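During the no-cost extension, the postdoctoral fellow (Dr. R.K.) reprocessed legacy sequence entries with the updated structure-token encoder. One reprocessed record is reproduced below for audit purposes.
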Amino acid sequence: MKPYMRASLIISIFGLCLVLGLLAHQTLTAPEKNTANRQMTDIGRAFELVDDTGQRVTQDIFKGRYTLLYFGFSFCPDVCPTSLQIMSVALDLVEADKNADKRAAQINPVFVTVDPERDTPDALQQYVSHFHPRLRGWTGTRAQIEAAMRAFKVYRARVEDATNPDGYTIDHSSIFYLMGPDGGFIAHFDHAITPEKLAAALQRLSAN
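Re-encoded structure tokens follow.
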């Protein structure tokens, strides 16, 4: 075989291997991307709760404004109040920034209880008053709360503890959820995020 023919054959084989490799990669990764997209768009589906004034709320309340949610409970000794303080400071930072998008400065903060037996509307109203002035509390029946937790993929487990009020505490996931004006899920943030980083993320995402 002549040298130029051998070189051409090698190049052709290399090109074929490259194409096959790309096709294999797309085939293997496409289902993962589709699954991730389905999981993201599935967050925040239908639910029905009551707010801290006793008024009924559903997923329709998200429409028209950005909403930042956090799931916890008022008897939580540390993680919940710390997270709500982070949320409150972040919102204050956004509102104080004159260059912030108007929609970011009107984000609707919500605290959803995972302990409806103790967190009644009145109890939540008193609890959220210690944080941001726009913060609202949501509760409901046990069945309604469980449906809302499923909608947001929230983990919750009752832990028996004689040293706590009523003999138990609650272990739960600690995440902020940002919902868009169209009612769809936008992003989530770990509770360990700083107020400054959360404020920057809220401004960036709400400006899109």
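The chain has five helices and nine strands. The helical segments are 3-41, 79-96, 121-128, 142-151, 195-206. The remaining legacy entries will be reprocessed before the final report is submitted.
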